[in-house]
Amino acid sequence: MAFRIGKSIMLNFGDNLEPTFIIIGLALLLLIGPFLRGYMLVMTNPNFKLSKQYLVELLPFVMIFIASFFADKNDINNPTTVIVFGSIIIFIYLHFATYIFIAIKIVLRLKYQLNNSLQTKSQKAILDWLTFLVIGFVVIWVSYFLNIIEDAVPYIIGPIMYSIVIYFLSYKAYLLKITDIDGEVFKVNENAILFKEISNLVIANKMYLNADVSLTSLSKLIGVTTQKTSEIINQYAQKNFNDFINSYRIEVAKNLLNDSKNDNLTIASIAFDAGFSSLSSFNTAFKKFVGATPSSFRKSNN
């Protein structure tokens, strides 16, 4: 990025800059895209290592970089040279835009994954950081794209905007302490796997309908201590064991109360059918989760 800005400064304030420097400066944009994608993958995947195939993505830069040494200032007004140079610029900017699009997809996929799971502080920091990073690159691309449109904006606006974005991103990286974390924060947690197993057992076997279900019986089924089971449920369901089980029971009770076919059933009968061992515990749990008594809930829905 610094080399790219340097080329723009020399072109704006220098006289008769050699075409080689101009083309090398443009060629550096062919590095930023692959570097961005590689960085995004490293920051979002645990134990990620770039394969040798990744080097293929650097070939466009190598080709343009080598070609820059064959640029001749005397041919600058040659129609063929103008066409070739214009084609190179278009390719470079489309190349950069493609990698920005790939980066956006990575961020959106990460956001979707985190929205569907319990995210840690470090995971949220990476998501925020990568979002700022992508926005910064979009701003950079737009500012440089406007530079190639004649008289759209002064040429120096590009490198100025580029510099502002980099300083801003550096500041955000410092605030988020982003240099202290990487994709390792997305390692699959053993507790998360156990919680999924617990949820599957409770739902598939409808254990919540059993009034005698307990933390001990559930722990025996998954082969861990009651303390471990309790910790996992508290961490991922953000409820204690009783509330975790009762949340499923309340959903069953709500469905029974909503069904007009059950109008002849008493509240107590519905409570027992939903898995509660007593009417008082049902009333307490129902009001806690629904915010109303079972009777008022039934009346309002009817």
TrEMBL record:
Question: What are this entry's molecular-function GO terms?
Answer: DNA-binding transcription factor activity; sequence-specific DNA binding
Q: Which InterPro entries match?
A: Homeodomain-like_sf, HTH_AraC, HTH_AraC-typ_CS, Tscrpt_reg_AraC-type_HTH
Query: Has the keyword Endoplasmic reticulum been applied to this entry?
Result: no
One Pfam family per UniProt = HTH_18
Q: What is this protein called?
A: HTH araC/xylS-type domain-containing protein
Organism listed in the record = Polaribacter reichenbachii
Q: Does the keyword DNA-binding apply?
A: yes
Coiled-coil annotated spans: none
Residues annotated as transmembrane: 20-42, 54-71, 83-104, 125-146, 152-169
What the entry lists under SMART domains is as follows: HTH_ARAC (SM00342)
SUPFAM superfamilies recorded for this chain? Homeodomain-like
From which domain of life does this come?
Bacteria
- Keyword annotations: DNA-binding, Membrane, Transcription, Transcription regulation, Transmembrane, Transmembrane helix
Q: Where is the HTH araC/xylS-type domain?
A: 196-300
